[in-house]
Amino acid sequence: MYNEPLFLKPVFKDRIWGGTKLHDEFGYKIPTETTGECWGISAHAHGPSEVVNGKLKGKTLDQVWDEHRELFAGQEGEEFPLLVKILDAKTDLSVQVHPDDSYARKVEGEAFGKTECWYVVDCGPEAELVYGHHAKTKLQFGQMVAENRWDELLRKVTIKPGDFVYVPNGTIHAIGAGTMILETQQSSDITYRVYDYDRRDDAGNKRELHIEKSIEVAMIPHEDNNFEPVLSEIDDLKISKLVRENYFTVYHWSLNGTVSKIENPSYLLVSVIDGEGELTVGGETSSTYKKGDHFIVPSSVKRFSMNGHARFIVSHPTL
């Protein structure tokens, strides 16, 4: 039986809107001064994470998924279902939208569309997100886009550290400048850009927009999706269930001391967003963790204990 967590080596992505906070705040060795994304837990073909400990050291997460399905409660499906990122938005991200599973399969030949959610790790005092729009029909939406009436079209909301935002497929959205989020999402890399502020890359080219596809998949009119957190405690661990929906269930954990027994419902995706400590399986096998670590507690670990002072974002596929 595999009785320890799978610690993973992140994959980093250079982005036109990225910066250096992934190094400054998390200590990662980033490849460029415009590193926008840390793919902490990924089996996606565009950047699979590598196991860095134990018997499976050196294997990528997609390989582990294919060869050791017993570590994932025997879950069916050709592809690992979730992807966990940390994003550093030095400048505004493009206004964008993602398709649902059906559209992704039919049009893009991909297994998953993209429903996602964000935990705001840090942001400035006046930080904003684009979340939704004000158009009532597809015709009105298309007209406002064609006429560049962005201030009228886009709906902006203010945010603060610790906020949680659920972004189902079809939601028009954009992360604002100065914001760092942890994103839990379906394992998809499909993005349709609606607006990119007329930015140009180093070669002087504007990035491609996807207006027709965006209008096809966008939620029009926009509808909010709000979830009230469900709070619980186990010993010195405070748990806030942030969302439970069709694809994933996501929690914020805050540990200040010791928790003697955590039950594992299937397999857990864990990202340490602050602090450090130790995780123990069966009272014997221990692993230390620190801020910036990403690991999976496999389904072969039925229960475990933890000690330390730390905060985590934890998720699993919704059963």
From TrEMBL:
It is an enzyme of class 5 (isomerase). Its EC number is 5.3.1.8. Keywords: Isomerase, Metal-binding, Zinc. It catalyses: D-mannose 6-phosphate = D-fructose 6-phosphate. Residues 239-317 form the Mannose-6-phosphate isomerase cupin domain. GO terms for molecular function: mannose-6-phosphate isomerase activity. Its cofactor is Zn(2+). Gene3D superfamilies: Jelly Rolls. Residues 7-107 form the Phosphomannose isomerase type I catalytic domain. Belongs to the mannose-6-phosphate isomerase type 1 family. NCBIfam families: manA. PANTHER family: FRUCTOKINASE, TRANSCRIPTIONAL REPRESSOR MPRA. This is Mannose-6-phosphate isomerase.
